[in-house]
Amino acid sequence: MTPPAMPQTVSQTGPDIDFARRVLITEAEALVSLSDSLGPSFVRALDVFAATEGRVIVSGMGKSGHISNKIAATLASTGTPSFFVHPAEASHGDLGMITENDSLLALSNSGETSELADIVTYAARFKIPLVAITAVANSTLAKASDAALILPDTPEACPMGLAPTSSSTMMLALGDAMAVALLERKNFSSSDFQKLHPGGKLGQRLIKVADVMHTDDELPLVTPDTVMSEVLLEMTAKRFGCVGIRGTDGTLVGMITDGDLRRHMGSSLLGARAVDVMTEGARTIGTNALLSEAMGLMNTLSITNLFVVEQVGPVGIIHIHDCLRAGTA
Question: At what angle do helices 166-185 and 63-77 cross, to 10 degrees?
């Protein structure tokens, strides 16, 4: 049977597009209302999580459970140890995952989700701090919490007003807001982020020069008075196609590349000193620079090596192939 032909173009108008836009606008307006509603309870929630010595346990049922999973993952990836506990499973042994050093974040739009009862009772029994995200301020969950984050009264994007849409979007965004606010409190850096995201493109973009640079015996260095016959031996042994010239004060005063050798080719080259052949002002980069920055600099300057310096002294060298092997392009 021949499948029906697909339309060649997608109209940017029509009932489907109009309805989809109404959904997005409704949810966007809900997020604006949520932003306007933030106040002292949000700060109290952050105080609870910042003071947690263990982990932030996130729990919710149904759609709130799916949002809870994502919030736990975002917290964990931004420096706040966290994991999700299913409330129904908690009643059958998984309460043992929660310790007195932890804190609890419970999500329920109604605040009356029966599956959360045991985990909330457990928190009260062992004095485990509880933060709630709910739309009902006088709900059981809100009253049991140490800090209740009340979602503003906004319509669901569902035309029947039943399917969690605006409410779940607000929960998700509120989790992001908490994670980023905690990140800022902790001065969580890109270096910290890279440690938790070593894989994939994100991890590759955050690799630092210090992570891949060549150091110690691999570093091609000579003094200004080194004769060129020894310079050539150093260049050949280290295989970077260059050497750095380190002055008596430890600073990098210049470098010699294959191009410098060609420009000074002659019968007197081997007897000359490094200072006579070198190019002053070697291009350098710092140890804490991102590898992507080193790659961009080498591409811009049409060079293949960069010496790595701390203060003014050379501590390493990086080749463009090191960037490519690390996945930086």
Answer: 20
